[in-house]
Amino acid sequence: MNENLRWLLEDKEPSIRYRTLIELLDKPKNDFEVTEAKEKVLQSKNVCRLFSRLDERGLFPHLPKFYGNFTTFNYLAALSELGLEKDDPHINEIVDWILTPGEDKREYFIQKEFQNEHAYLLDESNIGGCRQVEFLGTLVKLGFLKDKRVERLIQVFIDKCRFDGGYLCKWKKSRLPNQIPKSCYLATVPALRLFALLPEEYRKNDSYQNLLQYFTSRNMIHSKINPNEIICSLACSFYANGPSHIITLIYAMCKLGLGNISEMQELWTVVESKKDLNNRVILESTDSKKAILMEGVGTPNKYLTLYLMLCYKYSGDIIK
Prior knowledge:
This protein has helices spanning 3-8, 14-24, 32-42, 45-51, 71-81, 89-99, 103-108, 130-142, 148-159, 185-197, 206-216, 245-255, 265-272, 302-314; strands at 237-239, 242-243, 285-286. The chain is mainly α. The chain starts with a helix and ends in a 6-residue tail after the last helix. Residues 115-119 have low confidence and may be disordered.
């Protein structure tokens, strides 16, 4: 067995073991080894720690000591990274509460960018910004794709693809008067990830093709205006809402079957340079609130290494 595969399958981190079994090794979810691993995930320190923060309503309180107004979105993203899905009753109740319209949601998800306006983040008129698109990806990862409300939001998202192939928060303005602002790179990376998580039938449209062109026309990580300028953060990091942009990009492209196109060469070079002598990805930064407890900065990271090994798998080389 490949040494890194053995490392990922260690019992020390149940979520990594579980995800390795089902995502990297394609074990069926009814396999005894998988069901045993899933039970350990549900009892793990990371999962119990997050669920211990639920209030009397079964919701995550939006407190500054957590993630403020983004606590629910970040914690659900973290739980999806830990391997949980909609079959968990806590998650099902929280997502149903989020997706059910109501005045109480508006203040709960207010954003600073709107100043004193109420802004429910999943309101259809707002979809297009990074937070909304990231959360749609989380909903798909948690298994809510067949929910009619989620299907509707994803269709709205697809239709929001802009003239340059990217996405943008509706409140963003151009620096120049009377000029239509370009799309935001930070919002367009999670859009690529969302398409990678969706079934193939969602990719048979101009929005998807235009989105690919948005990235391939800049060799994935460069500015269109200044081709020598890298606008993608190159740090291999892990946050509450998942891996950093460079890992998200390479994972999404590989999952889409595009990991070996010529425009990916520089991205591969950067990511490969982030490994240690054992081909494990080194964690370069994380957020201070630590939704997921893991080894510290400067050490080999199992989550990032799993993502890179999945990239190898989708590109035809699982044991690199």
